[in-house]
Automatic annotation (TrEMBL):
The gene is citF. Gene3D superfamilies: Glutaconate Coenzyme A-transferase (3.40.1080.10). It holds the Pfam family CitF. It comes from Citrifermentans bemidjiense (strain ATCC BAA-1014 / DSM 16622 / JCM 12645 / Bem) (Geobacter bemidjiensis). The keyword Transferase applies. This is Citrate lyase alpha chain. The lineage of its organism: Bacteria, Pseudomonadati, Thermodesulfobacteriota, Desulfuromonadia, Geobacterales.
């Protein structure tokens, strides 16, 4: 075992790979060049169209021990990964690694195939029952959790080699041009699949909406697609929404949103050119609503909103409060409709969005990002991967990427969740390092990282409830009591990879 700079004990190697301990957000300098894929040739008159998913798997050359990838733009409505793994199992292929952009609760259907050895491990975050069972020691499958930007980096540098990318294409022609804007499974942006299409050894477009050539507009072009196959249904777009898309009416949430919006106004960042990202939860949308009103009052026009886009951001774009939306993933049907018709609603890939090893990611241009947390500690480290029971239940997403890139990252969370304090001496799992977190906002007060002394002084001047984070923790624990520390076995069930490829923490089997 080795200790990283945060004092977290990580294994020296995991799943056959030597690990690099986390140092700081900028300690690793990239070397080498972008991973290449082989050249290919398709002659005039040749057809890419295959008759079934099985024929596509056979044509791809998939063999035991190889790595496949899908994207998660349909989120909990995705049908493709389950169907794909079942077909692979029927063909007798084993030891497959899954390097999808995310695995959701709907994918619990593949658990029997993990137990049987068809699936060997995951080069991605897992949400739901798979992570819970791994945390209990009921599944033996290595899991490497990556950020959205970190996944793009890993594929582009070749540390994760995707042998076959199966891209769910809601609108596709027989030559492989595709977009996500129309069809029964329309999901909007295909941003997470763009890296796969560029770098996978073989690319298969899977569609339930084959249209005449050419698809217009093109999100992923024919030049990157080897085969096209049709299925009856890619998924249920109604299940793209995984959290509330309505502003919270809870008094605690509204108080948090009020404090957070006042932090943004006090920061001096809310001016012409303001750039902003927030999530789709009720508190985040309440913050957005208050920022929206402040922009109206001040006649402020922002430059862009980014990340996973909701209908709320679409309304701000249409109102002229932002000049553009940079969209790696649509979070609801309003966003799907918008990206299909509004040229200022720009589809971007995960590389452009958040990869730390390129000539400049969009997250580097963010003024402010609103993020959630399951836990925060007195060093401002944030946990979003594991719950209070220690189970691995959530992916990292763009949490660490945006915190590192934005001028000001704000954590919004209720001080007590499930009778447990949100602020701890030490988080169960470090997802995002405290040195990239600016402010923690709860309904009981605001804690400002020492990295932002001017902001702290301004908040105090405005008579907002600024507290030292240790003081905030003690206040909360006087209500909840101090929780007993969780007990873990030595067995590592997953490693949490920081966006640069270093290991920021390890998740261990929970001692029952």
């Amino acid at each position: 075992m080795a200790l990283n700079s945060l004092g977290r004990e990580i294994p020296e190697s995991y799943a056959g790979r030597k690990l690099v301990p986390y140092g700081d957000p900028y300690s690793i300098t990239p070397s080498g060049s972008v991973a290449a894929r082989r050249l290919r040739r398709v002659n005039p008159g040749a057809s890419k169209l295959l008759s079934s998913l099985r024929e596509a798997i056979e044509a791809s050359g998939l063999k035991d021990g190889m790595t496949i990838a899908t994207h998660h733009s349909l989120r909990n409505g995705d049908f493709l990964l389950n169907r794909l793994v079942a077909e692979i199992a029927d063909m007798g292929i084993r030891g497959i690694w899954i390097a999808s952009s995310s695995v959701h609760p709907v994918h619990a259907e593949i658990i029997p195939h993990i137990k049987s050895g068809v699936v060997a491990g995951f080069h991605c975050g897992v949400n739901g029952l798979i992570g819970e069972m791994a945390s209990r020691g009921e599944l033996s499958c290595p899991i490497v959790v990556r950020t959205h930007g970190g996944r793009a980096r890993a594929i582009m540098e070749g540390s994760v080699q995707v042998d076959v990318a199966f891209i769910a294409a809601p609108c596709c022609d027989e030559y492989g041009n595709m977009n996500g804007y129309s069809g029964p499974s329309a999901c909007g942006s295909l941003g997470y699949a763009q890296t796969d299409a560029l770098h996978a050894a073989c690319v298969v477009a899977v569609t339930d909406n084959l249209v005449p050539f050419p698809v217009v507009p093109v999100s992923i072009p024919q030049t990157l697609v080897d085969y096209v196959v049709t299925v009856d249904r890619l998924g249920d777009p109604a299940k793209i929404v995984s959290t509330t898309t309505r502003i919270t009416t809870d008094p605690v949430g509204l108080q948090i949103a009020s404090f957070a919006s006042q932090v943004i106004e006090a920061s001096g960042l809310l001016k012409d050119g303001f750039s902003f990202q927030t999530g789709s939860g009720g508190i985040s949308l309440a913050v957005s609503d208050k920022v929206r009103n402040a922009m109206r009052r001040g006649n402020i026009k922002g430059s862009f909103g980014c990340g996973g886009i909701t209908g709320y951001f679409v309304e701000m774009l249409e109102e002229g409060l932002f000049g553009a939306l940079m969209d790696v993933q649509c979070f609801d049907q309003e966003a799907v409709k918008s990206i299909a018709k509004n040229r200022a609603h720009q589809e971007i890939g995960a590389d452009m969005y958040a990869n730390p090893f390129n000539a400049g990611a969009v997250v580097n241009r963010l003024d402010c990002v609103i993020l959630g947390a399951t836990e925060v500690d007195t060093s401002f480290n944030v946990n979003v991967n594991t719950e209070s029971n220690g189970y691995l239940l959530h992916n990292t997403g763009g949490h660490s990427d945006t915190a590192a890139g934005a001028k000001l990252s704000i954590i919004v969370a209720p001080s007590i969740r499930g009778r447990l304090p949100i602020v701890r001496d030490r988080v169960t799992t470090v997802t995002t390092p405290g040195e990239t977190i600016g402010v923690v906002v709860t309904e009981r007060g605001i804690a400002v990282n020492d990295r932002h002394p001017e902001l702290k002084e301004e908040l105090i001047r405005r008579k907002l409830p600024v507290k030292e984070i240790g003081e905030l923790q003690r206040e909360i624990c006087r209500v909840t009591g101090t929780p007993q520390p969780l007990q873990f076995e030595d067995q590592v069930v997953a490693v949490i990879e920081y966006r640069d490829g270093s290991i920021i923490d390890a998740v261990r089997r929970v001692k029952e």
